[in-house]
Amino acid sequence: MAVEETGRETVEEINPEKESKSGVVMRSESLNDQPSPRGVLEIPVLGSDSDASSCSSNSSSYSPKKPVFQKGNRDSYGLQWKNIIENIKKKSARSFSIIPLLSSYEISRKNLRRKLAKLHGSEEEDVDIDCITVSKPSWKNFSYSELAAATENFSPENLLGKGGHAEVYKGRLSDGQIVAVKKLMRNKKEEEDRASDFLSELGIIAHINHPNAAHLIGFSIDGGLHLVLQFSPHGSLTSVLFGSPECLDWKTRFKVAIGIAEGLKYLHHDCHRRIIHRDIKASNILLTQDYEAQISDFGLAKWLPENWPHHVVHPIEGTFGYLAPEYFMHGIVDEKTDVFSFGVLLLEILTGRRAVDSSRQSLVIWAKPLLESNSVKELVDPRLEDNYDPTAMKRAMLTASMCINHLASMRPSMIRVTELLKNEDGLAEFQQKTFGGKAVIVDGCDLQDYTRTSYLNDLNRHMQLVME
Ligand SMILES: Nc1ncnc2c1ncn2[C@@H]1O[C@H](COP(=O)(O)OP(=O)(O)OP(=O)(O)O)[C@@H](O)[C@H]1O
């Protein structure tokens, strides 16, 4: 069953993002580091299932766990979640001029009840969603004054970064903890849409718990919408990879690549409902003190119930250069959309080149022939010189090749990607054979499909549309 989702048709047009004739909301953030606003949220406020699913792990010793559905147990977590929603509803009623949240809340509860009934194979009326709670540590509900004090009144000196719909400030809480405060900006977007975006991001980020995913500390709905996140001292991968005169060494690059792969594997395979991030890119990868990669910015993320092979969304949002062909051509969203973006990100890590360079050349288009001819030296970031592990580099190149396959079905799952990168099953299954002097990957990839130029044609056509 494919689920067609037609989000609101409003699209912001703030440079460098623009809506193409094909109805695609594009970001060209790799051209510069301008904000990349987004226009639409497709996840219903509460019917997003976000209140009914959980994925947890212990960050010190991670072991994926399925969520615990506890019927009839209105414990603190259930109440807390309910209170958040109620609070935002109240705030919305007070400070937002338009309040469809109340009605959409009821509709979403209905949706959730229906979906759960389907999953449980029971009648809709039988499912009591009020009683579905999950075990999870609590997050703090901050007041505006606490966050203002922590960030010195959101002073520009504490500004860590600015995205399309948020400003992120460094802050010190009263107990001394250093945090990142993500403040949703008031832009062209309707207030109600921002509240929905906030709930959607909160709903997902609050339910994930993995060393390679951003960690939520709390939130605030006082004086604006804020997420309080663990602070990442090295900022984003963009700044470390492209914005620093120092060359990121190979070992760290490879560790970051594996971390992102592990984080995506967790989102796709270890959560009760699969989570598709939809905006995997270098600026959404944060780095901890010891360069552990953390996937952040779940503003576009979507839940995908087990019996839904994919979503079909419109309009299409994302960042130019990272989008899979089936997504930008047809709006199809599933795990393989993220796998493609991961492939592009992996190429950025290997080559030191951006997904789209200053002359608007796509990294995928540039790298494909080099990957096919196994031209390691031409492909690898020249700043690395010869300081890399050639075997690991080869594995990474092969993995990237597979991830950017234009056919979604040919791309590996993130489980396979982590195995490949970590060489868990050796390179045997994944050898190269030489055909007419060309090295070609033969890991289940159809040779003809792999070497077809249709992706390049699609991408070129798409690029023309976007740039028009
Ligand atoms: N926890 C954090 N620690 C340190 N820096 C952070 C943190 N979170 C975000 N940042 C910085 O702020 C920038 C913007 O954050 P984020 O991507 O969440 O905003 P956004 O508006 O959602 O972006 P987008 O345009 O992708 O939607 C990041 O690229 C990063 O540089």
Automatic annotation (TrEMBL):
<dbReference type="InterPro" id="IPR046958">
    <property type="entry name" value="RBK1/2/STUNTED"/>
</dbReference>
<dbReference type="InterPro" id="IPR017441">
    <property type="entry name" value="Protein_kinase_ATP_BS"/>
</dbReference>
<comment type="subunit">
    <text>Interacts with ARAC5 and ARAC10.</text>
</comment>
<feature type="region of interest" description="Disordered">
    <location>
        <begin position="1"/>
        <end position="71"/>
    </location>
</feature>
<keyword id="KW-0597">Phosphoprotein</keyword>
<comment type="similarity">
    <text>Belongs to the protein kinase superfamily.</text>
</comment>
<feature type="compositionally biased region" description="Low complexity">
    <location>
        <begin position="48"/>
        <end position="63"/>
    </location>
</feature>
<keyword id="KW-0723">Serine/threonine-protein kinase</keyword>
<dbReference type="GO" id="GO:0051020">
    <property type="term" value="F:GTPase binding"/>
</dbReference>
<dbReference type="Pfam" id="PF07714">
    <property type="entry name" value="PK_Tyr_Ser-Thr"/>
</dbReference>
<dbReference type="GO" id="GO:0005524">
    <property type="term" value="F:ATP binding"/>
</dbReference>
<feature type="binding site">
    <location>
        <position position="183"/>
    </location>
    <ligand>
        <name>ATP</name>
    </ligand>
</feature>
<dbReference type="GO" id="GO:0005737">
    <property type="term" value="C:cytoplasm"/>
</dbReference>
<protein>
    <recommendedName>
        <fullName>non-specific serine/threonine protein kinase</fullName>
        <ecNumber>2.7.11.1</ecNumber>
    </recommendedName>
</protein>
<keyword id="KW-0808">Transferase</keyword>
<keyword id="KW-0418">Kinase</keyword>
<feature type="domain" description="Protein kinase">
    <location>
        <begin position="154"/>
        <end position="427"/>
    </location>
</feature>
<keyword id="KW-0067">ATP-binding</keyword>
<dbReference type="InterPro" id="IPR000719">
    <property type="entry name" value="Prot_kinase_dom"/>
</dbReference>
<dbReference type="InterPro" id="IPR001245">
    <property type="entry name" value="Ser-Thr/Tyr_kinase_cat_dom"/>
</dbReference>
<dbReference type="InterPro" id="IPR008271">
    <property type="entry name" value="Ser/Thr_kinase_AS"/>
</dbReference>
<feature type="compositionally biased region" description="Basic and acidic residues">
    <location>
        <begin position="1"/>
        <end position="21"/>
    </location>
</feature>
<dbReference type="GO" id="GO:0004674">
    <property type="term" value="F:protein serine/threonine kinase activity"/>
</dbReference>
<dbReference type="InterPro" id="IPR011009">
    <property type="entry name" value="Kinase-like_dom_sf"/>
</dbReference>
<keyword id="KW-0963">Cytoplasm</keyword>
<keyword id="KW-0547">Nucleotide-binding</keyword>
